Amino acid sequence: MQAYFSSLNPVALWNAAPGGIAQGLIWGIMALGVYITFRVLKFADMTVDGSFSLGGAVAVMLILNGADPQIVLIASFFSGILSGCVTGILHTKLGIPDILAGILTQISLYSINLNIMGKANQAVPINSVRVFFTSNIRYLGQTLTLTLVVDVCIIAVIYWFLGTELGSSIRATGINPNMSRAQGIDTNKMKIIALMLGNGLVALSGGILSEYQGFADVKMGQGSIVIGLAAVIIGEVLAETLVGKRLNFIMRLSFTVIGAIIYYMVYVFVLWLKFPADDMKLLTAIVVAAFLAVPYLKERSNNSFSGLAKRNAKLQAESKNNGKEAE
Amino acid sequence: MLEIRNINKTFNPGTINEKKALIDVSITLNDGDFCTVIGGNGAGKSTIMNAVAGVWPLDSGMILVDGVDVSGLSEYQRAPYFGRVFQDPMTGTAGDMQIDENMALAARRGQRRTLRWGVTKKEREQYQEYLKDLDLGLEDRLTAKVGLLSGGQRQALTLIMATMKKPKVLLLDEHTAALDPKTASKVLAATDKVVEEHHLTTLMVTHNMRDAIAHGNRLIMMNEGRVALDISGEEKKKLTVEDLLHKFEELSGGNFANDRMLLSK
Question: Is there a domain that residue A1 lies in?
């Protein structure tokens, strides 16, 4: 035990922190995409595991073919839009249930990504091209600023978009599809648009991450839906505790990104504790389950059958005791 | 003008649950007609509403609005023609959106949803006026979430949303059934007012015979998927609950299977 603690180096944690923040900011873009499908549209979209890798694959392969590393991110974004469109069509036009539609696209993207890259992973030729989103320690400050700017811009665009007529219709579709149709809203179209936008952001995030880590891997998106959800939920729980009733929409979006940063800071911290990297997915699942369970358990503790039974039993016991004392 | 021409609908055809919900139903509403529809459970009164609104396609028949056949249009495509209020107060509004946002969605019924701002300042002022007319104290709560309103307030708001962009036909599907009697009469009064004001052609389903008699200029009783009774004008004015009960008894073979109709006398 002594040996374990003395092996932990606080300086190493300090040095790893900026990398954690950078990764959190990059995954924050992904989490914003998940927010649009999961929270706004109320659609549990499993496509993202595939579209995240797709964004990375498209970016790296285009760079390898000589494209500008910044322009390729636009291609990543559009590749995500395409995959969201496929899920949307499977769901709305072919009547496949939401989760299954996403899984079908996700599984087909696995093959597609392998085809795009020709093998399971491809590296960015970092020595011959200059990428803005680099994890190179010398430029980390620049990467941090740039990703922060990108996040802020995306939050602003989402905020604007969901306030427009089209965006309001998407929100209404997520909340009450019957009412939306009665008001002349084409709910199928709205679902497809939201899925396209959400997956576009997810793939953009995948493209940036592959530049950051210097490679794309066919498995880089595996479990990313859980990380996205973790960010959304950590952000929500945090926002409700810190801001409470004054919580507005722009704060909700911002807290989603903050949720992603916190997730990666915890990740960095746990790795620093020499937790095996293979177990990180297990840990992520536990964190998400815990955060999902907290609001439910909180509600239950105030409002449950067994709680009432206990209170009643106590009252009865008390009145019995009082009765005895009176005698 | 609404013309329902020989419409048929069978649910679950060819199965043990087969139900002929509408059999060769034809109804024509003239401009400004306020028609109430009554009938027992399963008589087909709400089915008529859903058929007109386009919740599902008909097996056969036509629905014409001002001479235009809308029966081939899907629910959202024919929404511009109809204003709808539902039985469940939750159905007509988006609970997690603000009052003004809900109204703005309704104001754009039949328009393309563009990238222009969802609610403008000018619209908000206009909405405030509408809500003031309603006299429910909602005019100062434009930015409140609709989910915070009571059932009656939500139905009243839905009624405004259904009529603020004048529909060709107003469809009311037992819109007071989920409300307490006092609130129900308030919402009905608001309904009468708005129908009168905008001279709306209205189809109102109800299970309350008294309401069916007291409102509108025409009454239709449905039975087993068919129109069993169609009364209008002077004849309707003279109609009593006893008459209707008698007629209903006759239709159901002297057998009061439906206690709901009785109870709501």
Answer: no
Cβ contacts of A245 within 8 Å, gap of 6 or more: none
Q: Which residues 6+ apart lie within 8 Å of B95 measured at CB?
A: A175, A176, B145, B146, B147
Residue B265 has pLDDT above 60, yes or no: no
Bridge partners for A117 per DSSP: none
**Angstroms from B90 CA to nearest CA on chain A:** 9
Are A232 and A296 found together in one domain? no
Tens digit of each residue's pLDDT (9 = 90 or more) over A59-84 = 999 999 999 999 999 999 999 999 99
Question: Given the structure tokens 């003004």, which residue do they identify?
Answer: B100
Residue A41's SS3 state is coil
Give the SS3 label for residue A217.
strand
Nearest CA to A122 out of A66, A49, A59 is that of: A59
CATH number at B23 reads 3.40.50.300
Q: Are residues A268 and A286 in the same domain?
A: no
**Does residue A124 sit in the same domain as residue A254?**
yes
ipTM of the shown complex = 0.90
The predicted structure's pLDDT at residue B259: 47
- The torsion region of residue B225 among left (phi > 0), alpha (psi -120 to 50) and beta comes to left
In whole numbers, what is the pLDDT of chain B averaged over residues?
A: 90
Hunting for tokens 């039949």 — which residue is that? Answer: B110
Chain B residues inside the 8 Å CB shell of A172: 94, 97, 105
Q: Is the dihedral of CA A75, A77, A78, A84 positive or negative?
A: positive
CA distance B110 to chain A (A): 6
Of the pLDDT bands very low, low, confident and very high (cuts 50, 70, 90), residue A326 is low
Percent of chain B whose predicted confidence (pLDDT) is above 70: 95
Residue A6 above 90 pLDDT? no
Which residue, among A183, A189, A190, A248, would best test binding to B if mutated, counting the most B CBs under 10 Å from its CB? A183
Q: Residue B172 and residue B82: Cα distance in Å, rounded?
A: 10
Phi then psi for A248, rounded to 5 degrees? -110, 180
Q: Are residues A124 and A43 in the same domain?
A: yes
Task: Report the domain count for chain A.
Answer: 2
Domain that holds residue A295: 281-327
- A168–B101 C-beta distance less than 8 A: yes
> Encoding tokens for residue B118?
């969802």
The pTM for the full model equals 0.90
For residue B42, the enclosing domain spans 2-93+149-240
Preferred mutation among B113, B143, B166 to probe A, highest tally of A CBs within 10 A: B113
How many structural domains does chain B have?
A: 1
Residues A260 and A287 in one domain: no
Q: Which residue, among B103, B34, B112, has the nearest Cα to B77 in the 3D structure?
A: B112
